[in-house]
Amino acid sequence: MEDLDFMGTPAKPAPPPKPKPAVAAAEQASLYQPRLALEFFKLGGSLEQFSAGKQIFAENEKASGFFSKGARIYLLLDGEVLLTRGGKPLDLVPPGDIFGEMAAIAEAPRSATASARKNCRVLSLDEKQFQHALQQKPEFALMLMSVMAQRLRRGLARLGAAKQLTIEVLEHKNTLDKKMLAELQHTLGDPVPSSATAGKTVVTKGALGACMFVVTRGRIAISVDDRVIEHVGPGGAFGEMALVDRSGRSATATTETDSEWLLIGKDEFVDMVKARPAFGIALMRSLSARVLHIGKLLGS
Questions:
Q1: Which of 41, 75, 229, 273 sits a CA distance of 20 to 30 A from 3?
Q2: At residue 173, what are phi and psi to the nearest 5 degrees?
Q3: What is the number of other CB atoms lying within 10 angstroms of the CB of residue 186?
Q4: Confidence of residue 145 (pLDDT cuts 50, 70, 90)
């Protein structure tokens, strides 16, 4: 597999009518790094081949638990994969793209069916292989989170414009269990958590930021244009997008009760993922759950 290189891959062919993004679509042009993805999958991926017309995975397939019962994520080496939902085409996956990652990471059913449109070769990763690769190349976690973050920003912007939409609040906690929280605090040098009393603004939509937050006590409300979309409790995280693009905050965070939190910068994140891949997986799961939740609210 040493000769595989996507830097000269032809432009993505025109997708079927009414396309929707696979891994990144429009975002991928600026954020997705095919070479980094290839390096990551080559660290432990299994080479598989699918003949034209062969189904790779089916819509609504559900594996309970992260990557369990054979759930895998894929990198397309050559050929073409068609994604469909309800029998209708969504997108074409070209060589160099990854697919199937959202459901595996978020512990959610597959949102689409993937089939080989042409004879395909792929590299696939199961949970053990994914964690092994993540430990050696934690930068992949940041790259994948950047793609998710931009999706989330666009979804939140659409949500803000949909004033009449009924909001189902996402209850978000225990992204990190007590042991992982303790390890994180130790890795950070056992700092005294930042704190605020109930009713205080932690971050404001539009403000610039360079760190994420992990709640250790209390409850934080995440809102877009004064509408609460999420509650974050102990072990939950928010503000992850600042780690990857340092753009203005996409939502406002306000303490609902007396609360405490830890601040994590980009370098601390990379160090923690390298030492404990499960940490990166937990944060990717948190971000992917947000993407899927906003998508559900918008009906996409």
A1: 273
A2: -155, 170
A3: 9
A4: confident
CATH number of 25-136: 2.60.120.10
* Cα–Cα distance for residue pair 4/34, rounded to 1 Å: 11
Q: Which long-range contacts (CB under 8 A, 24 or more apart) does 192-198 make?
A: 193/217, 193/260, 193/261, 193/262, 194/260, 194/261, 194/262, 194/263, 195/258, 195/259, 195/260, 195/261, 196/255, 196/258, 196/259, 197/255, 197/258, 198/255, 198/256, 198/257, 198/258, 198/259
Strand order in the sheet with 98-99: 46-50, 120-125, 73-78, 98-99
For residue 176, which phi and psi values (nearest 5 degrees)?
Answer: -115, 130
**Whose CA is closest to 96, among 217, 7, 18?**
7
Answer with the residue of higher pLDDT: 201 or 274: 201
Task: Give the number of other Cβ atoms within 10 Å of residue 50's Cβ.
Answer: 21
pTM exceeding 0.90: no
Under DSSP, the state recorded for 168 is P
Q: Six-digit token pair at 109? A: 């059913």
160 or 34, higher pLDDT: 34
| Closest listed residue to residue 222, CA positions, set 167, 145, 283 | 167
Q: Name the segment(s) of the chain with CATH classification 2.60.120.10.
A: 25-136, 155-298
The CATH number of domain 155-298, selected from 2.60.120.10, 3.30.420.340, 2.60.40.2550, 2.60.120.380:
2.60.120.10
Residue 271 dihedral angles phi and psi, to the nearest 5°: -60, -40
